[in-house]
Design brief:
166 residues, mainly beta, 6-stranded parallel sheet, 4-stranded parallel sheet, globular
């Protein structure tokens, strides 16, 4: 695949109800993944993020691992990186996220986070999100000298078993 978006779209197409085995997407060559990826089939709402996954992999014990191998860069071009809505059992590790604007000082700054995971379905709790070794190079739009230059870089709402390290 030439983008993380295409790889994730293929996995979701192959496993529309969720995984039936553990799956890993691992970067094998250095590169930059841009937000638009030149795909015209992407839904308009997903154009704010490099990768958007909705209502997927719930009630399965299997993991989707997205591993940048410390050589993959995601360029959000001032927008978001990973958007997970009502998803479970996801591992994101070893990525550099660049050109993140945190929109500090606006009414919903987290909506374009580098990693934005949220559970919105009533009565359901998303589970098992593991985030490791993510480098976020961003800038506050509120103040270029703000000590919160990557504030809202990772936002998680309504999840159980979340682990963020390094």
């Amino acid at each position: 695949y030439n983008s993380l978006y295409a790889a994730c779209a293929a996995i979701i197409a192959d496993y529309p109800e969720g995984l039936t085995k553990d799956i890993s997407v691992t970067c094998i060559s250095e590169g930059v993944d841009y937000r638009n990826n030149s795909y015209s089939t992407r839904p308009n709402a997903d154009k704010l993020f490099n990768i958007a996954i909705r209502e997927w992999n719930n009630d399965t014990p299997y993991l989707l691992t997205l591993d940048g191998s410390n050589i993959a860069k995601i360029d959000g071009q001032g927008f978001g990186g990973f958007y997970l809505e009502d998803c479970s059992n996801i591992v994101i590790r070893n990525f550099v996220y660049q050109n993140c604007n945190t929109y500090e000082g606006v009414s919903a700054p987290e909506e374009t986070a580098c990693i934005y995971a949220t559970g919105i379905r009533s009565g359901y709790v998303c589970r098992n999100l593991y985030i490791e070794n993510i480098t976020i190079n961003g800038q506050s739009t509120d103040s270029t000298t703000s000590s919160y230059r990557t504030r809202y870089g990772i936002t998680v709402k309504n999840y159980e078993n979340v682990y963020i390290t390094n």
